[in-house]
Specification:
Blueprint (H helix, E strand, L loop, with lengths): L2 E8 L2 E8 L6 E4 L7 E2 L2 E2 H4 L1 H12 L3 E5 L9 H18 L1
Parallel strand pairs: 3-6
Antiparallel strand pairs: 1-2, 2-6, 4-5
Organism: Bacillus cereus
GO molecular function: hydrolase activity
Protein name: Alpha/beta hydrolase
Length: about 100
Amino acid sequence: MSITERFFYLEKEPCVIYLPEKPNGFSVMLLGDYNYFIENGTSLWTQHAGRSYFLHGLIEQGYTVFSSNLYGRHWGNDQSVRLAKRLYDVVLRKET
């Protein structure tokens, strides 16, 4: 199965979206902790074997998966929550 991944910036924060070959109409937003990263065309979810297996399982089932760095270790603050909502809205408008 072919998987398309697209890296982009939203409010200067790195984001990624993984698009399945046959979307099922649902999406999953991945949130990370203080070790989470998206940079240089990769992320923790693709570099860690267990997380990569889980990620690819979701995509193979047709889920659109997306995530952002959310300002690194500061996610959960007002700025990060606002960015998470904006990312959700962008994905909802452009990918569904």
